[in-house]
Design brief:
homodimer; Aldehyde Dehydrogenase, Chain A, domain 1; Aldehyde Dehydrogenase, Chain A, domain 2; 2 domains; 7-stranded mixed β-sheet; 38% helix; globular; Aldehyde_DH_Superfamily (chains A, B); Ald_DH/histidinol_DH (chains A, B); Ald_DH_N (chains A, B); 2,5-dioxovalerate dehydrogenase (chains A, B); EC 1.2.1.26 (chains A, B)
């Protein structure tokens, strides 16, 4: 474990090993499993680092984020090989995810420099106002405090030790304590050392970053309950997210948990689109479904086909039958996947349409699966909404738009909702849009939900149970807002104000002055 | 009760009467106490109104808010008299609060027109990007859904039926169901009818606004638990706010509760300020403390005097002794106040310094009270931090700055924190600022915490337990953000996009385009 400056291996601690999901072999070394003592130390250091780290100037903080990115790049092939061994993900995906991770860090560096995240507002004084003079009020955002980040299994880089939660928390000025995912401890250590090296290069307090290994119910719960932790970022299962949210709500001082949990990402195929390009849609659907062996939060797990879906289904079935076997991240995930698919297959009115290849040479082998049902069955069986994490999807043959609207009214909150519409479907699509925007955080036309852009306008979030905090996103620059809160300064002497609040805007940040937006000259 | 278009008085319902706190007399008429059936009907109407109301154009919504303000003004003396009879507040305060309330509605109308609340972000497509083209992504905020507002006892207009929660929710595009406070039902009815008249004038769906009367544990809990309610605004006691938050968290789909609960609003008097103007500070302190009989969330309940506080304390004691008796809002509040003051007086090491006048002619009579203790006692007795809602305050004689910092580290979250500093105190004040900004939502220099500006840069919020949602404010234009969430639109055809997201910014709203802030020409 990397606790501030120290490498920590508690004597006698249990060890956990990663397992190569292709060969099934245990990977060395073993990683010690920490507990309350390690949480205590990491939280104490993070608390001690908070005031110094949050006071860093934007330029210094931006360079620190860029150094983390450079240090990750400098790990080179050693990192890529370790990720592949621990996750079974193919090299191209790992290279892409590394670029996404370092790009994310560099994007947050740009955000920190631009300063919009400070949310500066200035209401000038009016000493002549009657009956009472108006005071001088200035507002900015400050970080909540040290943040606990729970790494995800399925993005060993981009949603892990130096992933989006860590990047946005560090950008906000919050020290970070990461709980690594036991599926990829070696990857976590390599990236953790890259972050720590950047902390040292920039002379930041050691508690700015720590990396812990340990079991979720023990070390993870202790981390959420520590009074010095002010917020939690999590990507994972619904049960895991809800457990953390409950632990956070039960604290003497409750804290926010930003948990991205589960989503089946409904896709609506309107009649014109099905008629115009049904077979092409079928092939593209399965390409999205089988990406990363379906182990993506935005995998299209549910399709509503309105109208003649035969061409679409035939092409999708062919594509699933031709889909190669792929390793799943861990054998536990593989087992849960097989069980989930079997549960779905066993529901009355659900038919298996196709299955992908198996490969006996892959220890934790994932096999694509396609199921079909009709609208009446779907409406009568709530369990058909449950996420099966992996490359399994259910197509619902929907009679007409009225049945589609009735079904949409029963759906849980989602990360994404997608529409495929021909020009002739636009009147129907116009009716759909208000339903989909209340259902999901991202509404797509003509594409597939996998592939989440990292930018300013993206939302990777959505109504419960897609997330525990529907007003937020865990991807993109808006993610920084999760770790900030506004503070108002009334009649504070100019000399004591932070630069971004001073007269004349010396920091050059966007400001809302007396209700009017100013760009800050950038 | 005003449930959409209907005046509802369930046959056989219990009735509650307001009581004039000066005369102690019961005021007519009685107001029916509703329950689950009324919640069901109001929530159903709000749900039915949601899509239509949230689709109103900014100009139409702004005019609706302005009509509510005009209708409240048009109630004239009848409203002022009823407020005075139900609350015992003096006429000047009621007139001021009415102006604050209508000003708030008009300010939110301006906010709706300016459009910054939409949070528009545009990341243009890049079809030539490799390895994958960049999609077109546009983001805006939409309302969460119908909002339940719990009115406060102590601001019968500004934090009640058409107060800040209602104004900001309606501005966000959310229908509102208000639970009136039983301390001022007649005021609530008058204002409720003013809102409903505006709903009708503008041809809005009847469910845009409903007003319910009933008990908190019954009707209030049912309202928070209704699946069609998407968020809750509350101003009141800590126990009340925590009960609503627990009920909201226990729902199958949890929702946010924005509860503004309790605060003692610490004031720090630094040695130079005490030496320079101790007696003047003492008088100003008591003027702030006795405003509204101390029944303000921002009343200065706790003062830390560092250095020679004799002149300050003598002046404060004189002012308290001279403070006239004042009616408290209800006899329940008066009783709780007397009990709280008695508890404080009974703590070891706490001395009563002065008490204000009593008046046997006032049925629910509040009496100002001033207590003093020392830093060591304060640090050893956590109960001295508890809010006594009313004009009671505790002055802590603090030895030095080191003791002050130690004490500040033990304080709960607050709405405000205030510093009085002479020029010679500035080095100490500079050290204090980082402590105070993590403690409170608003940091003041040289003033007193009562009197909360309604503007853009104000924060009326703060860390738990001051509020249940520290990243928000319940006063000022930022309050609108509590009821919004971002949605991202990916590759949605131009013709289907809302105006604020279309090419060329036809709505003229501020936008973040590819990370660069644009003002929208306003």
């Amino acid at each position: 474990m990397l606790i501030g400056d120290a490498d920590v291996r508690p004597p006698g601690a249990d060890e956990a090993h990663a397992v190569d999901p292709v060969s099934g072999e245990r990977l060395e070394p073993g990683y010690p499993q920490g507990g309350a003592a390690e949480v205590e130390r990491a939280a104490e250091l993070a608390h001690a680092a908070f005031d110094t780290y949050r006071a860093t100037a934007p330029e210094a903080r931006a360079r620190f984020l860029e150094s983390i990115a450079a240090n990750i790049d400098a790990l080179g092939a050693a990192l890529v090989e370790r990720v592949m061994a621990e996750t079974g993900l193919p090299e191209q995906r790992v290279l892409g995810e590394r670029a996404r991770t370092t790009g994310q860090l560099r994007l947050f560096a740009a955000v920190v420099r631009a300063g919009g995240w400070l949310g500066v507002r200035v209401d000038p004084a009016d000493p002549g106002r009657t009956p009472l003079p108006r005071p001088d009020l200035r507002q900015r955002k400050i970080p909540l405090g040290p943040v606990a980040v729970f790494a995800a299994s399925n993005f060993p880089l981009a949603f892990s030790v130096a992933g989006g939660d860590t990047a946005s928390a560090l950008a906000a000025g919050a020290p970070v304590v990461v709980k690594a995912h036991n599926a990829h401890p070696g990857t976590s250590e390599l990236v953790g050392r890259a972050v720590r090296a950047a902390v040292r290069e920039h002379g930041l307090p050691e508690g700015t970053f720590s990396l812990l290994f340990g079991p979720g119910p023990g070390l993870g719960t202790a981390l959420v309950q520590d009074p010095r932790i002010a917020a939690v970022g999590f990507t994972g299962s619904r049960s895991g997210g809800l457990a953390l949210a409950a632990a956070a709500a039960a604290r003497p001082v409750p804290i926010p948990v930003y948990a991205e949990m589960s989503s089946v990402n409904p896709v609506v195929l309107l009649p014109g689109a099905l008629a115009e390009r049904g077979p092409a849609l079928g092939a593209a659907y399965v390409a999205s479904l089988t990406t990363g062996a379906g182990q993506l939060c935005t995998s299209p797990g549910l399709v509503f086909a309105v109208g003649d879906a035969d061409g679409f289904l035939a092409a999708a079935a062919d594509a699933v039958a031709a889909a190669p076997a792929a390793p799943m991240l861990t054998d536990g995930i593989r087992r849960a996947y097989d069980e989930g698919a079997a549960r779905l297959a066993g529901r009355p009115g659900v038919t298996e349409l196709a299955t992908g290849a198996r490969d006996a040479a892959i220890a934790s082998c994932g096999q694509a699966r396609l199921y079909v049902t009709d609208g009446a069955t779907f409406r009568s069986d709530e369990s058909l909404q449950a996420e099966v994490f992996g490359a399994t999807s259910l197509v619902v043959r929907v009679r007409d738009l009225a049945e589609l609207h009735a079904i949409l009214g029963t759906l849980e909150g989602q990360l994404t909702a997608t529409v495929h519409a021909a020009e002739s479907d636009h009147p129907a699509a116009r009716q759909l849009l208000p339903r989909l925007e209340v259902l999901a955080g991202r509404v797509l036309f003509g594409g597939w939900p996998t592939g989440v852009e990292v930018g300013h306008a993206v939302v990777h979030g959505g109504p419960f149970p897609a997330t525990s905090a529907p007003a937020t996103t865990s991807v993109g620059t808006l993610a920084i807002e999760r770790f900030l809160r506004p503070v108002s300064y009334q009649d504070v002497p100019e000399a004591l104000l932070p630069a971004e609040l001073r007269d004349g805007n010396p920091a050059g940040v966007p400001r809302l002055v007396d209700g009017v937006q100013e760009t800050g000259g950038r």
